[in-house]
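Side project, low priority. Logging it here so it doesn't get lost.
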Amino acid sequence: MNSTQQAQKGFKTFLLTLSISLIIFSVIYYVLTNPSFNKSGLSADIEDEQAVLIEEETVFGELASQKMDVPQRAVLAGADETEETTQGTAAVPDSGTFEVTVGLILSGITFLTGLYVIMRDPRKMALIGFERRIFKDLD
């Protein structure tokens, strides 16, 4: 086996490994960040943990629950009055599925492009194009 064949097989192996790893890691990322997986299997566990947390009492919890005799809340910079603002959330939280979908599509396109390049055999196509130009110039 000469170095050209080894290089060609190495390139094919590289493209195959790259595309498979992109697909696998995109699926893993999707599974880890998808909120529906987190809600269905862990909802009972979360309720149990909340019940356990409520039952535990600590010294710091008692200190935090005591009312402080402070005339008004102020910022350390010396504000006279404070304004309470409420934070709102979006109606539909961003779940991150768009990025995963784009990753899957791009890895699929890369995989198919690599397969197309391998099937076309670029060295053979370059040699055929070179021969056509030479024969065209000879005429």
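Brief comment: The chain is about 70% helix and 0% strand.
Revisit when time allows.
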